[in-house]
Write a structure and sequence with these properties.
This protein is an alpha+beta fold. It has a single domain (2-230), classed as Glutamine Phosphoribosylpyrophosphate, subunit 1, domain 1. The chain is built from six helices and ten strands; from the N terminus they run αββββααββββααββα. A hairpin with a 3-residue loop joins strand 1 and strand 2.
């Protein structure tokens, strides 16, 4: 659990038709590239991770194999809940065995199946829960506070509004004065009529520009209010 808390933040939120995943990419040093935080599992499913990336890659490979086997045997996409339960069992087995250490990673699993959109969180202890919106990782409480204020209004939102909410919630998780950019943020979306899609830099940049403009406007309003109060 401590490994999950130390990992860079990621979050997910869903409407009636779509699920959005967003994550902050962390670079080990200024000379290295950013680590990958969001992984594709199938055309209808993806995960965001907080914790040990190597453990996440191992679990992602297991999830992809399960999806392929299910599709080969039954000819349909695997339901999100069934796969999450399998992953949670895999987590939990390691807590009772001396052969392997527990997985030091938390997952946010986003999927769309015949029962609609779903967002699950799994933890190293083997527990899993379904959410309308959730954030995990370092400084995730800031994102949780934002999501708690707005989750009631998420159900009817379209893709653009969901992505804006995700980025605004994620902005509070950045350390120091760093700002969100196309290099340190990854956003993926999946839903009704929308296969798993990882947004590229050109698509993501307009959303970041809007967030920055709205933040500057809020600061200007706050300054004006403080100036009026002083007078």
């Amino acid at each position: 659990m401590e490994a999950v808390k130390q990992g860079s933040a990621c979050l997910g939120l869903r409407s009636d038709k779509l699920v959005v995943l967003a994550a902050i990419n962390r670079a080990p040093s200024e000379l290295s590239s950013y680590q990958k935080k969001i992984f594709k599992i199938d055309d209808h499913m993806g995960i965001a991770i907080a914790g040990l990336t190597a453990d996440a890659r191992s679990l992602a490979r297991y999830m992809r194999t399960e999806c392929l086997n299910h599709k080969y045997v039954y000819g349909t996409d695997m339901t999100t809940g069934r796969l999450v339960e399998g992953v949670a069992d895999k987590h939990q087995q390691c807590t009772q065995s001396y052969v392997r250490r527990p997985y030091g990673v938390g997952l946010l699993v986003a999927g769309y199946d015949k029962t609609g959109p779903h967002l699950f969180e799994t933890s190293p202890s083997g527990t899993y829960l379904e959410y309308y919106a959730m954030a995990i990782g370092s400084r995730a409480q800031s994102a949780k506070t934002y999501l708690e204020k707005h989750y009631d209004s998420l159900a009817g939102l379209e893709q653009k509004e969901l992505i804006k909410h995700a980025l605004q919630a994620l902005a509070g998780c950045q350390q120091g004065d760093k700002e969100l950019s196309t290099k340190n943020v990854t956003v993926a979306i999946v839903g009704e009529g929308v296969p798993y899609t990882l947004l590229d830099e050109a698509t993501l940049q307009p959303y970041l520009d809007e967030i920055e403009v709205s933040a500057d406007a809020e600061m200007a309003d706050d300054d004006a209010a403080e100036g009026g109060a002083a007078e």
